[in-house]
Amino acid sequence: MAFSSTVRTLFRLLLGLIAAALLAGLGGWAVLEAGWYDAGATRQHFQFVHTLLERGMHQSVRFHARDIVAPPGRDAVMGAASYKAHCQQCHGGPGVAQGIIGLSMQPVPGPLVDASRRFEAKELYWVIRHGIKMSGMPAWGFHLSEQEMWAIVAFLERLPHMTPDEYRAADPGGAVGGDGAGQAGRDGGQANATRGKLALTQWACQACHLIPGVTGPDTHVGPPLKDLAKRRFIAGTLPMGEENLVRWITKPHEVDPATAMPQLGVPERDARDMAAYLLSQ
Ligand code: HEC
Ligand code: HEC
User: Fold this and answer.
1) Which band of pLDDT confidence, cut at 50, 70 and 90, is reported for residue 188?
2) 231-245: per-residue pLDDT in tens?
3) CB-CB contact of 80 with 171 (8 Å)
4) CA-based nearest residue to 160, from 198, 107, 95, 115
5) What dihedral angle (degrees, nearest 10) is formed by the CA atoms of 272, 205, 140, 174?
6) Ligand 1 site, residue 86, Cβ cutoff 6 A
7) Which residues does a 6 A CB cutoff place in the pocket of ligand 2?
8) ω before 107 within 30° of 0 (cis)?
9) Ligand 1 mean position to 100 CA, how many Å?
10) Number of the ligand 1 atom closest to the C-alpha atom of 61
11) pLDDT tens digits, residue range 2-50?
């Protein structure tokens, strides 16, 4: 008898837990649907949420960067130019504040003068290459070369010892551009559909197109990119095929000067991988 009453107690406990979880879920859903959650960037997180997110981010970076091997001989001079071109606007530098975009973001991108004390070189590289989801920290893997990303890491390692004067003097000639130079993850000459799927998100194609297998907004600015392999024409003008698809993605304005599809500066290797993915969907 004692046995069956224990089972009954456990069963009731389980039912209670399920009911509580359902109620909590329902409550959360109601708050969401009512619009009570303030999504504005002027509303700060609670301190404990902020602390929890920071810790989660740091642990995630540590875990994902664990197998990366930092190359020797990184070029901090090149890193200075790159940093000023791509990072200063949000993170500032010694004696230099962020631009208005960086100043008013939520979470606010902190100064990186001490980043190399909180992160190892390989972890800094990982953050630069992959960015940080839902924070506004962009991923640079498709827009900067490997060499440039490691150069920025080298520069970050020098930042803690740099005075505002030294910072100003670093790369006085102005910034070098990194646009379209992304080479990260490129393996040989073969088109790689898996990398192509990632490349589509790193060039923001899903902002205008519904793409099978790619998470994004419910957008119809451009036509959905599904069943491309079955289509006869691209944008109603170019015969469908891998070469033409690459041409359209890299130079839509050359094909049709009047098209609303922007010329994004996608390098050919990324376009090839994207085409491989799109034609497989
Ligand atoms: C559009 C704005 C923006 C740009 C440009 C930007 N970042 Fe960030 N960065 C952020 C935000 C936002 C965070 C997240 C801050 C947080 O969660 O505390 C962040 C976080 C980081 C972190 C983790 C910092 C920490 O203290 O925990 C590093 C390292 C970093 N960025 C490096 C860079 C580098 C290097 C560049 C240039 C290649 C760069 N960022 C460009 C917005 C930006
Ligand atoms: C700002 C919005 C926008 C972005 C971003 C954008 N596109 Fe487009 N795209 C369009 C529009 C609009 C069209 C229709 C153009 C036309 O028919 O002239 C189009 C057409 C296309 C087509 C032809 C589709 C068809 O049905 O024939 C392909 C393929 C395509 N885009 C791929 C891409 C890829 C890959 C990216 C990312 C590198 C991208 N687009 C980014 C707006 C966009």
Assistant:
1) low
2) 999 999 999 999 999
3) yes
4) 115
5) 100
6) yes
7) 200, 203-205, 207-209, 221-223, 225, 234-236, 248-249, 256, 259-262, 264, 266, 274
8) yes
9) 15
10) 23
11) 778 899 999 999 999 999 999 999 999 999 999 998 888 888 888 989 8
> Is residue 185 very low, low, confident or very high in pLDDT (cuts 50, 70, 90)?
very low
Q: Is the pLDDT of residue 175 over 80?
A: no
Q: How far apart are CA 241 and CA 136, in angstroms?
A: 36
User: Tokens at residue 156, please?
Assistant: 């970050």
Spacing, Cα 190 to ligand 2 middle (Å) = 24
Number of the ligand closest to the Cα of 152: 1
Closest protein CA for atom 25 of ligand 2: 235
pLDDT interval class at 182 (50, 70, 90):
very low
| Residue whose token pair is 């940093």 | 83
Pocket-testing residue among 195, 197, 209, 253, ligand 2, by greatest number of atoms within 8 A of Cβ = 209
